[in-house]
Amino acid sequence: MPSQQDRTRALVDLVAFRGPLSESIERVARFPWDCDEELVSVTMADVLAVLRRYLAGEVVAKDLQAWADAVEMRDDLGHAPGVVDVLFELSNPGINRAITPTLAQDLIERYDPAVPPGDAANRPSAGC
């Protein structure tokens, strides 16, 4: 039986978009969505790093949507202010805007105060 430590490690890998996304989602799916405590926090830095990877061509739109959907509503994940809004926008392109480089740039500019407007595409990737 997987341990709480296994669960935390799987959540950390998912939040960081570490390794193949399908494997991360599969590892996390072994655990229930419901949890009495938040084991891992999703920070705005985590979200911005994944958006930058998308802009760099390391992540495709379909996987960005799947990642956002996978981390949006889990009870074992905490969410920093603003994170749920970005995840909702990314995980629901049918009712929000389509995932495009323009959307990613807009979100980076909106949520990263260090990025001057119009400069998100020129900002170096934060990496993983």
Architecture overview:
This protein has one domain. Helix content is 51%, strand content 5%. It contains 6 helices and 2 strands; from the N terminus they run H-H-E-H-H-E-H-H. Strands 1-2 form a two-stranded parallel ribbon.
For this entry, give a set of tags.
6 helices, mainly alpha, disordered C terminus, single chain, two-stranded parallel ribbon, 128 residues
Write the layout of secondary structure elements.
Blueprint: H1 4-15, H2 21-29, E1 40-42, H3 44-55, H4 61-72, E2 77-79, H5 83-91, H6 101-111
Parallel strand pairs: 1-2
Strand content: under 5%
Helix and strand sequence: HHEHHEHH
Quick check: average pLDDT?
89
Intertermini distance:
29 Å
DSSP, total strands: 2
In one word, what is the shape? globular
SS content category: mainly alpha
When the domains are counted, the total is 1
Rg estimate, integer Å:
14 Å
Q: Residue share in helices?
A: 40-55%
- Which residue ranges are poorly predicted, with pLDDT under 50 across at least 5 consecutive positions? 120-128
Query: Which strand order does the major sheet show?
Result: 1-2
Note the total helix count. 6
Short summary of the structure?
This protein is 51% helix and 5% strand. With 128 residues, it is mainly alpha-helical. Mean pLDDT is 89; it is low at 120-128.
